[in-house]
């Protein structure tokens, strides 16, 4: 079955490259797969329900970075498609550090790497952080070679190891499928199942939910310990589930600590872990000296809407539509879509809120000007005092109101309502 995207015809890839293109990590052990009655292996997971979904925006970004940096890092959560994206490259050497044979080959890394030329891909780099100083040495040798490294932890979690590559490495943060990858007709499916390819591409909603629940378990029991984090999986799961109730809300570390029976500092540590593994987005408040009392605590979102639904035990789209978390779910989903389309670093996005009630869901600066977005799960959003206050106080060049409808229209000269489905590969500042 082919979903929203192309077949492999006309790509210019040989049979071996086509086979490798569909290779992707799978988060279950053979025992888990056997217990679940699944016949998937590490190979060809994407081929189960589709031919191929091209990710043109991410492929173009990867090509740009590779033309600039000797080392390009693709970072993102497990199963977001990093390996599949890397397999589209004509790599001369490929090391998958979850493959025992490749891991054994790199027990003596300098001997394994120093004579290689061309494009060298190293997958799951966080498993061998000691490679970074060697990569710097190899890059500085000036030979005809480039590296693409893939990791399931943020640059902050591997910062100590990657500092040696400063000025030599470019970071690409990859998420699940974009709106532009799957087409406007599949927005509701993307919202409900999330963007992680195996969840989005599952044969049914039930299989998608099963996959997401197992993903959470494996992430906590296998991936977190592999990063050297020694927090019991059950403890972090309870915390993650509790955190999902703060989705779209101001994060109060002290309140969370009291509810969970831990200190503020421990709450921050747990949040940093989930943020560093791309599970949550912590949006910082924007401060401006306008003589108003501003909210100065961060706001939290779970990055993947499908995982958010699974953690809240929302098992069907019908349950979602009657859930009190419906609006928060859609807001987080739409916010992630916009952030990825704008294409700035996570640290460059903010929200703005005053104690008097005026607020702006998303704020950033670009082209020397200020821009903002409000998200409304409504049939036809109307002009509000909060919108006018945000435009005036933040000196916004434009405020967009994103909603799930179909018609675009203006509320004022500076405030425009646009459907989420109208968002393209890059942000239109118009």
Characterization of the model:
This protein is α/β, with parallel strands linked by helices and 430 residues long. It folds into two domains: 15-173, Rossmann fold, CATH 3.40.50; 228-276 and 278-422, no CATH class. 39% of the residues lie in helices and 17% in strands. It has helices at residues 15-21, 30-36, 56-68, 82-87, 100-105, 109-113, 131-140, 159-162, 179-182, 187-193, 197-200, 205-226, 233-244, 253-260, 264-276, 305-311, 317-321, 326-342, 385-393, and strands at 71-75, 93-96, 118-123, 145-151, 169-173, 249-250, 280-285, 299-302, 350-353, 359-366, 369-375, 396-403, 409-410, 415-419. Strands 6-8-7-9-10-11-12-14-13 form a nine-stranded mixed beta sheet, with helices on both faces. A five-stranded parallel beta sheet has the order 2-3-4-1-5. β9 (350-353) and β10 form a beta hairpin. The longest helix is centred in the middle third of the chain and has 22 residues, at 205-226.
